[in-house]
Amino acid sequence: MSGALLVRALRDPASTAALDAAGWTSLIAAARAEQIVGTLAHRLHGLSKPASAERILADARASAEQGRTLALWEAEMAGRALLPLGIPVVLLKGTAYVAAGLAAGQGRNIGDLDILVPREALPAVEAALLEAGWEWVKADAYDDAYYRQWMHELPPLIHRERDRMIDVHHTILPPTARPKPDAAALLADSVPLANGLRVLSAEDMVCHAVAHLFADGELAGGLRNLWDIHCLLDAFDTPHALAELRKRSQRHQLGLHLERALRLRDHLYGNGAVLSLADRFYVRRLLARDGWGRSTRPVSQAAFYLRSHWLRMPPAMLARHLWTKWRNGHRLSR
Amino acid sequence: MVPLDELTAVYHRTSGQTHLVAAPVPEILAALEGAPATLDVLLARLAERYDLADPDPEALAARLAELETLGLVQRR
Amino acid sequence: MKHIFQLRIGPVGFRVGSDWRGPVDAVAALYDDYPKPFDGIPDFNVRLFAERPWRRVLRPSVMIGGDYELPDAAPLPLRLGLLAAEMGMNLQMALGQRRYLLLHAASVERDGRALLMTGVSGAGKSTLAALLMARGWRLMGDEFALVDPETGLVHGFPRLVSLKNQAIEVVERAAPGARFGPLQPDTPKGHIRHLKPDAASIAAMDVPARAVAILFPSFGHAPDLRPVPPAETFVRLTQASTNYVALRERGFHALTRLVTGVPAHAIDYPDTEAAIEMVERLWEQSA
After folding, report:
1. Does the distance separating the beta carbons of C248 and A21 come in below 8 Å?
2. pLDDT beyond 60 at C31
3. What is the C-alpha separation between A23 and A4, in angstroms, rounded?
4. What is the distance between the alpha carbons of residues C224 and C150, in angstroms, rounded to a whole number?
5. In 3-state terms, what secondary structure has residue C185?
6. How many CA atoms lie within 13 A of A119 on its CB side?
7. Are C101 and C142 in contact (CB under 8 A)?
8. Which of A153, A249, A327, C63 is the most exposed place for a label (fewest CB within 10 A)?
9. Number of CB pairs < 8 Å for A and B?
10. B·C CB contacts under 8 A
11. Terminal-residue alpha carbon distance, chain A
12. Residue B4 located in a structural domain
């Protein structure tokens, strides 16, 4: 199972010395599928390995470096458009990690730009972005209404010339989800960077990663999310710091999710943990990859997809949403 | 910056973008390199280096505004 | 992935896996004398898979996947499995290649010097490359030319040459002893047949060459040859490269070095004989 292989390589880089060609092939395929190959490359940097593996991983590091440049530039341009509005603009996820120079950002593969702004500012933000060259990624009218009414973000925008997407959030979970994080507190306690943009406080970064991992639910990219959490938790190495973190997570109604994240992180990347039955289900899902990096548990996957939507929408709404999506999909089927 | 016949190719490290520019842009960028300047100082620098007959501050301001949109220069 | 084949084309190693035997057998037959990936570790993985388990048998259609994938890509019928494998490898290169600057160009070599032919699909690059190979040039590749940013040299990527429609017959006549793959009729781009690079081209796949000429061929016009200035060449080549941006400053330096050091010409030609004649004449002049 290459999921387990990947986790072991990240946790204990020296263990890769025992890998044969097939092992390296599986490891790299799994890392690419989990979007974590840049991080793997950094972890294994300097260790002796076959020349081909060294070349492939060196390319991955270079790729991550390129992604970093593009991500920071995208943040810079978003800042130029939005900071004049006088509102806090908080960077989230990968872009935040690299902007703040955190270990979690090392080798990270960054896709879209995610930012958090106050809910009242959304119309002004929307207008400013459209003015500065972003435009809507139009799916269909139904999706647009769904986003605006039920989700925690504007429908996706993409920049006309640079061809990069931006996701504008006003809280870190959909309003229809069960945990209700305190968006005002996230913004109020955010930390400024030199260029005027902001990032979440250290505790809130962990809470966001936890929210993203579980409550936002499909568990796709779960191993990478847990690795982010693992890196972020390095700053919480005293009992007092951990206690404060727990208190903060409870404020965001993410207390139980944080506990689960801590156990999974210890189990996968740390020194082991006592897992509940539900925990084991999560672990199976997270590690379910074959030698080609493919997910091997179709049943679990469907269960998580349904669960992810259930967490976002009450059951009646869910039925209506899936029915409409199925009808649209059916019309367009090949 | 690499000159290619009448145009110059410019690689902007911070953004990863490549621009193809024509005179007077390469000259403006070269004149600003490592030494930020006000509009008047920049105009004087360019007039001296390139022997400009009729230095026009408005034209320079317009070029600088364009470069600012591209992200190649920044106003402080 | 029940059926697997590993191969190396130039400096790039692939692992191709398939839910069906047919595509892998077709690939293995045509690439039988190609080397394996360095150290047994491929650079890229290609997967040919069934969208749903029953699609393996019922109206089987092949989804193309791998390390790098395009969302919403339409599958191909199983009878075009070889084409699917080739497209899968192209896709990995187009989206994932980071070591070499990738130019969408055909390249041939003689005496250690390389000629690059680039332009839009249908301009005739693959056909010209195949015909030049039949006349004794070493084929470096018909789809991608790999430029090493450190040395500026061109590296070969001699995969199967993809010939379409009328070109198939033209090349069959010009190269009677050559090995072809099965006809792939009624693809989205018409009829396709793959031509195997000759033994000399395969044997020399690891030998790089210095680029001395860039050509922009254009089919279906009165013969004409005109120089293309560096700035225009630069722009056209960035459009012909899928990884120029990803290579950042290395890509910038590799490409500016190429366009300032290698002359470029646009070639208009009414038929392949005229094209070959113009190419050979240009080549003699560049020596």
Report:
1. no
2. yes
3. 12
4. 35
5. strand
6. 14
7. no
8. A327
9. 17
10. 33
11. 34
12. no
Residue B19 DSSP label = E
Determine, yes or no, domain membership for B40: yes
Quick check: A332 pLDDT over 50? no
User: Is residue B6 in a domain?
Assistant: no
Compute the average pLDDT of residues C260-276: 91
Burial classification of residue C187, based on how many CB atoms lie within 10 Å of its CB (0-12 exposed, 13-18 middle, 19 or more buried): middle
Domain A2-331 belongs to what topology? Beta Polymerase; domain 2 (3.30.460)
- Which residues of chain A neighbour C72 with C-beta distances below 8 Å? none
Distance CA A149, CA C268 (A): 57
Cα–Cα distance list, B33 to A76, B24, B64, C256 (Å): 21, 14, 14, 21
> What does the alpha-carbon distance between residue C154 and residue C140 come to, in Å, rounded to a whole number?
9
Res A160: pLDDT: 77
Choose the weakest-confidence range: A124-138, A230-244, C101-115: A124-138
What are C55's two structure tokens? 């699609």
**Residue found by looking up tokens 């790299």 in the block:** A28
- What is the C-alpha separation between C269 and C225, in angstroms, rounded? 9
Classify strands C264-269 and C210-219 as parallel, antiparallel or unpaired: parallel
Contact A82, A127 (CB under 8 A): no
Closest CA to A188 of A248, A147, A244, A131: A248
- Which run of H or of E encompasses A281? helix A277-287
Rounded mean pLDDT, B42-47: 78
User: Given an 8 Å threshold on Cβ–Cβ distance, is A52 in contact with C41?
Assistant: yes
Q: Which helix (H) or strand (E) holds C253?
A: helix C248-261
Tally of structural domains, chain B: 1
pLDDT for res A314? 45
Q: How far apart are CA A63 and CA B73, in angstroms?
A: 26
pLDDT attached to residue A320: 52
Partners of A29 on chain C (C-beta within 8 Å) are 45, 67
Closest listed residue to residue A91, CA positions, set A108, A125, A116: A116
pLDDT over threshold 50, residue A313: no
**Best mutation target, C2, C18, C41, to test chain A (most A CBs within 10 A):** C41
A334 shares contact with chain C (CB less than 8 Å): yes
User: Is the CB of C230 less than 8 angstroms away from the CB of B5?
Assistant: yes
Rounded to an integer, what distance in angstroms lies between the CA atom of residue C71 and that of residue B25?
A: 41
Structural domain that includes position B34: 23-76
- Closest to A63 (Cβ–Cβ): which among C45, C75, C246? C246
Query: Chains near A, with 3+ CB pairs < 8 A?
Result: B, C
Give the C-alpha separation, C223 to C266, whole Å.
10
Could you tell me the two tokens for C195?
């031509």
User: Nearest 5°: phi and psi at B14?
Assistant: -65, -30
Residue A152 pLDDT grade (very low, low, confident, very high; cuts 50, 70, 90):
low
Mean pLDDT of chain C, nearest integer? 90
A276: left (phi over 0), alpha (psi -120 to 50) or beta: beta
Q: CA-to-CA distance for A220 and C277, rounded, in angstroms?
A: 57
Averaged confidence pLDDT in chain A? 84
Residue range A25-65, pLDDT digits in tens? 999 999 998 889 999 999 999 999 999 999 999 999 998 98
From the CA of B63, how many Å to the nearest CA of chain C?
Answer: 21
Which tokens hold the place of A83? 């900071």
The reply to whether B30 falls in a domain is yes
All structural domains of chain A with their residue ranges: 2-331
Residues of B in CB contact (< 8 Å) with A are: 13-17, 71
A261 vs A183, A214, A276, A305, CA distance in Å?
21, 8, 12, 19
Mutate to test the interface with B, among C98, C233, C243, C260 (most CBs of B within 10 A): C260
